[in-house]
Amino acid sequence: MFASLAERLQETFKKLRGKGRLTESDVNEALREVRLALLEADVNFKVVKDFIARIKERAVGQELLASLNPAQHVIKIVHEELTTLMGGSNSRINLAPKPPTVVMMVGLNGAGKTTTSAKLANLMRKQGRRPLMVAADVYRPAAIKQLEVLGGQLNLPVFSMGDQLEPVAIGLAAVESAAGAGRDMVIIDTAGRQEVNEELMAELENMKETIKPHEILLVVDAMTGQAAVSVAETFNSRLGLDGVVLTKLDGDTRGGAALSVRSVTGKPIKFVGVGEKLDALEPFHPERMAERILGMGDMLTLIEKAQENFNADQMAKMQKKLRSMEFTLEDFLDQLNQVKKLGPIEQVLSMIPGLGGNKKLKDLKVDEKELVFAEAIIKSMTPAERSDPERVLNGSRKRRIAKGSGTTVQEINRLLKQFEQTKKMMKQFIDMEKSLKKGGKMLKNPFFS
Amino acid sequence: MGLFSRLKESIKGGSQQAAAASETTQEPELEKTGFFGRLKESLTKTRQSFVEKIDNLVHRHKAIDEDLYEELEEILVQADVGVNTAMELVEKTRRSVKERRVDDAGELKAILKEHIREMLGTDTASLNITDETPTVIMVVGVNGVGKTTTIGKLAHYYKSRGAKVLLGAADTFRAAAIDQLEIWAERVGVEIIKHREGADPAAVAFDSLQAAKARRADLLIVDTAGRLHTKANLMEELKKISRVLGREMAGAPHEVLLILDATTGQNAVNQARLFGEAVGITGIALTKLDGSSKGGVIIAVKQALDIPVKLIGIGESLEDLRPFSPGDFADALFDE
């Protein structure tokens, strides 16, 4: 739906090409595109305004006007400033000098506090802590049960006293019990509330006064719109936040709320929620967030994932084969299986710059079931057919394979086509790598192209 | 491996250098406080309602000029209308001003409101209640938008009007989601069909519909697990639930209600589009309008997809679910 900022800026500057020198109004035109991109990403309007002013200072000054490729230059400045503004990666929880450390989770209804509490407890346990989760959401039906179920799944204790007591009392009792039970961290799940609800906001203030948490984390839905500013500001001014957790980042939101929240509170975004599973809580990467907000995809995450999942030996073998053009259907199958390990294919594709919002990608959807068919088809072939399908396969062989694999000739043809495309693509990758080696151009990416 | 690590290095290297460069050239801390300070100040200054802003605007500008239009666009963007829709609305207002030869800035508000109403459509859309019973409503949406709560309120609404309502607990994924719906069922005093957590949601939907028929219920409301619209496998699951309902009763689900959180930004458009592609949304319920957000994104959704908003959630109590009226909504944007 959104053209990436890079493309749009190229477009803007194309019009200006041949002018020799850029004027200030040209720069303004480019900044207008940046502004639109940020607004489309839900960055709060005021934040955008100040941000653009800041960029303009740099852009107009010296650098841009003399630059040979202004589009790239603008992107570089925007990206740098955005990354700086997002702050460093800080995913530390303030620890109490004397345990237990008390962490309080706050936020709007439905932001994901309960799930995040469990995810955080899980993460903290991995870091050697002994967390106790506390069910202090006495308002939402079954919120206590939800935390208990999650605790059961994680095999971590949950402190609850039903929904008849005041949250403050529950919190206090939990902290007291923690020390005796050998728990060095207490994570309090509070009820969701609208920041305009005076009574409930006062309740949180009271909790803070009485329980004195060492860390107050605001849980924010990454899909939040312009209201993110008012939410973050109110929670921060009333409670003094220590950090922010951004949830539901595994969707296709550009996540401009991250910038809004960070800007108005000045508090670090410490973690991001990236999935339904209880280990899907990751440290926040400002750089990646900046790229995402600008609609530039997330190459770093993709590469990291690929690195985790691809076996180095296999990769080396594959590359060798490709160089000598020995890439066969069997290798293709291996490869499909490896790609599968990267996660849902749509998610992988969405991380590639320029493809993020591409509508055509929907046709490209790789169904997990298709992989099963591919495997059946390839396994119904003889070794000769697998190594050189193009030459060996004829109509009658294809019919045999279709019968053997329970598919149709059309499906076999489709697979062969995909195979050819992959071969071509892999070859491009290899060529690219060669040029990398020569110290030539970097990855073809809107950033560097 | 070589390929990947080098790719990564090259990407990282580039931006790290950039970061290092900006660190040496400026005092980041000072810079930050300055920026944040300024921002905070400007935010507190402008934390007014939509209408105050427009009134202000109109007051400050006696004449209608470019600055005025620009600020108008900004105000709309701040209501989450979306930048494209905001531009379009301003464009329409501009045209009307020209056509009608308006030169008093004071009339601007009325013109803008008129165009917002026009975009939202004038008809009040109600739920598709069928003659043949049970009417089946399937409730869908991303995580945390308020599906279960809305179902509780919806059940109450129809029960208090004399309908026999049955709930189907087909959110078998989220921890304690079934318990949550059960508590609502108890509060409202309606029956609920449930399986165990982790059960096949389509099977729950099937059983619910069977039960609704057998018990002669007027209305069956099926809860589903929250899911991000980008997760293909989960959207397939949703399609299956819908398919199973349709197989058991022609035309079911008669209403596929997408729940949208009013606090959501432009992503709401993607949500509506993808849920719509998967299961054919017939209506939208906009929740959490009691917060600070005005839910302007609904205008963007309407503009992009033309799905009617049927209900709004305006508070925590059982009565806080109302039919949506485009006129009132447009008024509310300006009221207060």
TrEMBL record, chain A:
One molecular function GO term is: GTP binding
Keyword terms of this UniProt record: Cytoplasm, GTP-binding, Hydrolase, Nucleotide-binding, Ribonucleoprotein, RNA-binding, Signal recognition particle
The EC number of this protein is 3.6.5.4
Check the record and name the SUPFAM superfamilies matching this protein.
Answer: P-loop containing nucleoside triphosphate hydrolases (SSF52540), Signal peptide-binding domain (SSF47446)
- Output the SMART domains linked to this UniProt entry: AAA, SRP54, SRP54_N
Which Pfam families does the entry link to?
SRP54, SRP54_N, SRP_SPB
Positions of the SRP54-type proteins GTP-binding domain: 268-281
Q: What is known of its domains?
A: Composed of three domains: the N-terminal N domain, which is responsible for interactions with the ribosome, the central G domain, which binds GTP, and the C-terminal M domain, which binds the RNA and the signal sequence of the RNC.
**HAMAP family tied to this protein:** SRP54 (MF_00306)
* Binding partners and assembly: Part of the signal recognition particle protein translocation system, which is composed of SRP and FtsY.
Family classification? Belongs to the GTP-binding SRP family. SRP54 subfamily.
The name under which this protein is listed is Signal recognition particle protein
Q: Which gene is transcribed and translated to give this protein?
A: ffh
From TrEMBL, chain B:
A Gene Ontology molecular-function term?
A: GTPase activity
Documented EC number(s):
3.6.5.4
Whether Cytoplasm counts among this entry's keywords is yes
Q: Which UniProt keywords apply?
A: Cell membrane, Cytoplasm, GTP-binding, Hydrolase, Membrane, Nucleotide-binding, Receptor
One GO term describing the cellular component: cytoplasm
Domain named SRP54-type proteins GTP-binding is located at 308-321
Name where it mostly resides: membrane
**Locations listed in the record:** Cell membrane; Cytoplasm
Q: Which reaction does it catalyse?
A: GTP + H2O = GDP + phosphate + H(+)
The question of whether Magnesium is a record keyword is answered with: no
Any one of the GO BP annotations: SRP-dependent cotranslational protein targeting to membrane
The residues that cross the membrane are none
Q: How does it sit in the membrane?
A: Peripheral membrane protein
Q: Which NCBIfam families match?
A: ftsY
Tell me the function of this protein. Answer: Involved in targeting and insertion of nascent membrane proteins into the cytoplasmic membrane. Acts as a receptor for the complex formed by the signal recognition particle (SRP) and the ribosome-nascent chain (RNC).
Q: How does it assemble?
A: Part of the signal recognition particle protein translocation system, which is composed of SRP and FtsY.
Similarity field: Belongs to the GTP-binding SRP family. FtsY subfamily.
What is the protein's given name?
A: Signal recognition particle receptor FtsY
